[in-house]
Write a structure and sequence with these properties.
The protein is of the alpha/beta class and 432 residues long. 35% of the residues lie in helices and 18% in strands. Bound molecules: guanosine-5'-diphosphate-alpha-D-mannose (GDD) and magnesium ion.
Length: 432
């Protein structure tokens, strides 16, 4: 990939936000070394991106999406990535999860790709959270709460247990497998540029096409993200004293983090998750209050925003859904200790204008989940492994990896085949 080097940046304490980077070539071939063009553009070899993707878990959160769409996204994920699917699809009256399971199993077998699959509302997952010391994620029924962030938290723990260094997210409702593939290459490109082990890559969609008056219109900003970006930028500007428009990815559903960073952020519930990442970075590593992580303060956090070339075709959200998302995003900023009274007032006005909030209504704070770092990972693994489905995987022709003499367990240790956590050997898998 040939990609622009960061030109503009904005610092906020230990965080460095780089301005959006353009991609000049999606595949720049087999380069022996990074190729620099006037210090402005770098060519990253296929091997370099491959090496990073090999250490990456790609998470696809699913809630009742059409199979065609889910499959399309899976087709776009490079073979070297571990795929993790956390589904919150209904099990009644039709067991959608069972249908997904069968399709994903067939996909994993045909593509020889390793896929982990679990249902977010499986009681065993809830039990694992309780026993591992993280009960915050459970609802009144004693199950993991509904929500995209909640599914992402399950997946982040699995990525960590699988020994991965990076975790990237791709929505399941994408009509274009090629776009999903591009995002995963851009995640790798961002991490190739990163100097800190605490880094994040966020995709800025080149456009979100929609039909307007019978014609294709390539919208630049989503209906929520225009507000989210504005207020995040205002928040940063207040502290730096210089107005900025550096944040263009406040709602980036397509984003990736190093596990080192992912485990140290707190999380906003549901669709607040992406804007809350920025809020959490500013609060924890912005230097306004003492940071819980002096090590991160020393090394710094890098936030890359990469502009994709493919348009983003996804299932269009209903107006009410977009309003909920706007409310979640702006409430996350409103609830931050960094938010000024003036900005709070502006957010309230915006919520009244663009959502169902009435003047005088209190802004409901977004639920927050603490960082995952304190989870007892061994306990979590021991509890969840009975239910985790590890789809078949036989390395056909490993490129950089030597075939292990003993089969690898999914989290990286080695065990004889009979101890495979799905309860089956990798040669004779069957869907449950
Ligand atoms: N596991 C799980 N659990 N997945 C979920 C849940 C849930 O409760 N709810 C939604 N998902 C999945 C969907 O199936 C889809 O793959 C993805 O999360 C995004 O959900 P959408 O409902 O398609 O969200 P959106 O398109 O309105 O918004 C997306 O883009 C925004 C930026 O424009 C999301 O990624 C937002 O988080 C993002 O801010
Ligand atoms: Mg969507």
């Amino acid at each position: 990939m040939r990609i622009e080097l960061p030109r503009t940046r904005e610092r906020f304490g230990a965080n460095v936000f780089f301005g959006p980077l353009q991609v000049y070539e999606l595949d720049s071939g087999l380069l022996a070394e990074p190729e620099y063009e006037n210090g402005a553009i770098v060519g990253l070899s296929y091997e370099r991106l491959h090496e990073i993707q090999r250490q990456m878990a790609v998470v696809v959160p699913v809630r009742g999406e059409r199979l065609r769409l889910i499959e399309g996204v899976l087709f776009g994920i490079p073979n070297q990535c571990l795929t993790i699917i956390v589904s919150n699809s209904p099990r009644e009256p039709v067991d959608r999860f069972r249908i997904e399971q069968q399709a994903i199993y067939a996909f994993a077998r045909h593509s020889r790709k390793r896929v982990l699959l679990i249902h977010q509302r499986d009681p065993v997952v809830a039990k694992a959270f309780v026993e591992a010391g993280y009960p915050e994620l459970l609802d009144g029924d004693g199950l993991v709460r509904h929500g995209k962030a909640e599914g992402m938290l399950v997946a982040t723990i699995l990525a960590h247990l699988a020994g991965k260094r990076y975790v990237g997210f791709v929505d399941a409702d994408n009509y274009s497998p090629g776009a999903a593939h591009e995002y995963l290459c851009e995640y790798a490109a961002g991490f190739a540029l990163a100097e800190s082990q605490y880094s994040m890559v966020r995709i800025l969609w080149q456009s979100k096409p929609k039909i307007v008056d019978g014609h294709m219109y390539f919208a630049r900003w989503g209906r929520t993200s225009r507000f989210t970006n504005y207020f995040l930028n205002q928040l940063i500007s207040h502290y730096t004293g210089f107005e900025t428009d550096i944040v263009g990815t406040g709602n980036a559903g397509e984003h990736a983090l190093t596990l080192d960073l992912a485990l140290r952020l707190d999380y906003g519930a549901g669709y607040a998750v992406e804007p809350h990442h920025i809020v959490s970075l500013l609060e924890r590593f912005g230097g306004e209050r003492e940071s819980p992580d002096p090590q991160v303060m020393r090394e710094g956090v890098e936030i890359f925003q990469i502009e994709s070339r493919n348009p983003h075709f996804h299932k269009a959200g209903e107006h009410g859904h977009v309003q909920d998302m706007t409310r979640a995003a702006l409430s996350s900023i409103h609830g931050s200790y960094l938010c000024t009274e003036d900005l709070r007032r502006q957010i309230e006005e915006e919520l009244v204008r663009h959502t169902t909030m009435e003047p005088g209504d209190a802004v409901k704070p977004v639920r927050r989940y603490p960082p995952l770092l304190d989870v007892d990972f061994d306990v979590f693994r021991a509890t969840v492994e009975e239910r985790l489905q590890v789809m078949p995987f036989q390395p056909a022709q490993p490129i950089h990896e030597e075939a292990p003499a003993r089969r690898r367990r999914w989290w990286g240790g080695t065990q004889p085949a009979r101890d495979h956590p799905s309860g089956e050997t990798e040669e004779s898998p069957s869907p449950r």
